[in-house]
Amino acid sequence: MLPEPRVYSADELKVGLTAEFERDITEDDVLTFARNSGDANPLHTDAAYAEGTNYRGRIVHGAFQVGLASAMAGMYLPGRNALLGTVNARFVAPLHYPCRVRVHGTVASWNAESRAGQLKVVVQDAGSGLPASEIAMGFSLHEERDIERATAAPQPAQPATEGAAPAAGQKVVLVTGAAGGLGTAIAAALCDDYFVLGLVHRRPLADEMLARPSVAQVVADVAAPFWEEKVEAALGEGTLYGVVHAAWPGAPHGGLLDVQDDVLERQLAFGTSATIRLARLLFSRAGEGGGRFVALSSIVASHKPVLALATYSLGKAALEHTVRLLAPELARRRVTINAVCPSFVPTGMHEQANELQRKREAALVPMGRLCEPGDVAGMVRYLLSPAASFVSGQVIGLTGAQL
Q1: How far apart are CA 77 and CA 106, in angstroms?
Q2: Is residue 130 domain-shared with residue 167, that is, in the same domain?
Q3: Sheet strands (E) in 71-201
Q4: Residue 212 has pLDDT above 70, yes or no
Q5: pLDDT at 146
Q6: How far apart are CA 210 and CA 15, in angstroms?
Q7: Residue 297 sits in which domain range?
Q8: Dihedrals phi, psi of 89, to nearest 5 degrees
Q9: Whether 130 and 198 share a structural domain
Q10: Are 98 and 28 within one domain?
Q11: Do 133 and 177 lie in a common domain?
Q12: Are residues 179 and 104 in the same domain?
């Protein structure tokens, strides 16, 4: 009978949490792995051959060690609810067998909001204590189905959207991250003049927003595959006038040398591939009058990078360059694209800032006040308007005259 895996909830996980197990690796283990994987390289399976190499004996497959790291993730830390997304392995020294290994896992990063993190696993020879491999594994937590609901009678298929439907001739604007701090303010500012299709992921739109006659939501992650199909279904035969890209996967602290690969890749993806996919959607679904794309960047991107937010600064800078490069291509269909770069806004990632922090930031602004959500929403409204039909490829700072 297989052992029961440990279960960590999203609330229990934190950076620095560790787990460890030991096990023996026998000749039968390695030969069975060779048969099952098809990797019967003699360095792993033929004692006479391996003895004649510079390794002086048979060694355990690297993939076998990755399997041990997978056991750490799936059985010990984070345990049952873990789903692996990425694996990055470095093999420090050959691991000869038979041997006993110690497998040590540490949560290197964890984002409770996105339910994703990275696990660092070290496989050591338990006898010598020397590491054989270091394996970084990006993971997320899957959710449990409601068993009663799953075993009940089949339910009708859920509609692609929740909320209202656009009226004939009403311009549709897709807002990513519409349930976030700035996304909510922008969606609220637009819904009087446009039909707002809010693209949300972890958090749904507020009930009062969904109750409005010109608001609907689609649940999808713009960094995941196939979200376009949900938006296409929501649009039906209609056109798409605008995209406001406000979604962003947080602002990790620290420099580039210490950031985990999956965290860096996700920041860059939101600024590059996710932005390009949104642009493709708008390009294909814009009407004869063209369309508008507004991306939310930040003053800490190209204008004023911050070393303590190096990964975030890099991702936002990549977003701005992507906007510039997309502008000439989108212009073929009279679609404009611009980036809005607010300074410190007391919402979203800065919502928890205390009064002292807000006063310090305001003191840096020659206009004497912080950038407000209404300032950002006002610039977005302008860039969506007919008055901005010749503005494209621009990176516009909302700095309050900061240099």
Answers
A1: 8
A2: no
A3: 82-91, 99-111, 116-125, 131-141, 162-163, 172-176, 195-200
A4: yes
A5: 47
A6: 36
A7: 162-398
A8: -115, 145
A9: no
A10: yes
A11: no
A12: no
> For residue 144, what pLDDT band results from cuts at 50, 70 and 90?
low
Q: Are residues 209 and 239 in the same domain?
A: yes
Query: Element (H or E) spanning 65, and its range?
Result: helix 62-71
**Annotation says 241 is catalytic:** no
- Taking a C-beta distance cutoff of 8 angstroms, is the pair 339, 323 a contact? yes
Q: What share of the chain is helix, strand, coil (3-state, %, to 5)?
A: 35, 25, 40
Q: Which two tokens stand for residue 163?
A: 């909320």
Concatenated DSSP letters of 190-206: HTTTSEEEEEESSSPPP
Say if CB 163 and CB 216 are below 8 A apart: yes
Report the distance separating Cα 103 and Cα 131, nearest Å: 10
Same domain? 68 vs 97: yes
Same domain, 109 and 174: no
Residue 115 inside a domain? The answer is yes
Range 41-59 average pLDDT: 95
Residue with tokens 């993939």: 63
Residue range 74-78: average pLDDT? 94
Rounded CA gap, 262 and 274, in Å? 15
Question: Considering 8, 76, 194, 312, which one is annotated as catalytic?
Answer: 312
Span 379-397, pLDDT tens digits = 999 999 999 999 999 999 9
In this prediction, residue 148 has a pLDDT band, given cuts at 50, 70 and 90, of very low
> In angstroms, what is the C-alpha Rg of the chain?
26
Lowest average pLDDT, out of 8-22, 203-217, 301-315, 337-351, goes to 337-351
